[in-house]
Amino acid sequence: MRDATIGYYDSHAEAFVSSTVGADMGSLLMAFLELVPDGGRVLDWGCGSGRDSLAMMRAGYDVVAVDLSDAMADATEALTGLTVRREAFADLDDENAFDGIWASASLLHAPSGELPGILVRGMRALKRNGVLYVSFKYGDFEGQRSGRWFNDMDEVSLRSVIEGVDGLEVERVWTSSDVRPGRSDEMWLNALLRRRQVRG
After folding, report:
1. For labelling, which of 15, 52, 140, 199 has a CA lying 20 to 30 Å from the CA of 21?
2. Which part of the chain is the Methyltransferase domain (predicted)?
């Protein structure tokens, strides 16, 4: 599943970057960055074209970018000048390192059975009260689609996953339309999750 998805991005990188690098993510990024301290350290977890890494850098944030696809990592490096970490979601081992994690249209490629463990890693990588943004195609489909593995989510399925991750709580869940030209009929599920503060 993972190998096929990464293979897709490695072989379709130019077309994918062309179709996504100009997408206007402003309102979604704003909802996330409003909860991250100015100049904070942010992980772009599945950075793709590098579009959002660049936007966050320009806004003054200290950005760390990660992607398992070599072609996507190369695209981000070319766009941003960052050195991209090339690793799988399940290999994230940072602890208390980030004020925010931005996982836009990336964790949707993780099989549902692996998602809780991946979110635990994300939670541990956050500082106390840190914020994790995730987005999924809206629905209940899981499987191969267009050469990649997709795990679609709705409000019920997402909350069910989050409830199984001790240390994460839901800050906000909402839907939005796809911002790419000609795809406004496609819906996305967005969520802001927070690492709970330990109460003394």
Report:
1. 140
2. 42-130
Residue with tokens 């030209």: 181
List, for the chain, all residue ranges whose pLDDT scores fall below the cut of 70: 1-2, 13-25, 179-185, 197-200
For residue 183, what are the CA distances in angstroms to 20, 28, 110, 124?
12, 17, 23, 35
Q: What is the pTM of this model?
A: 0.91
pLDDT on residue 1: 46
Q: What is the pLDDT of residue 51?
A: 92
State which H helix or E strand residue 190 sits in: strand 187-195
Give the residues across from 85 on adjacent strands.
66
pLDDT in tens, 72-94: 999 999 999 999 999 999 999 99
- Token pair of 196, please? 């709970």
CATH class of this structure's domain 2-195: alpha beta
Here the tokens at position 95 are 């602890």
Q: How far is CA 95 from CA 101, 120, 124, 128, in A?
A: 12, 11, 5, 10
Cα 45 to Cα 32: distance, rounded to the nearest angstrom: 14
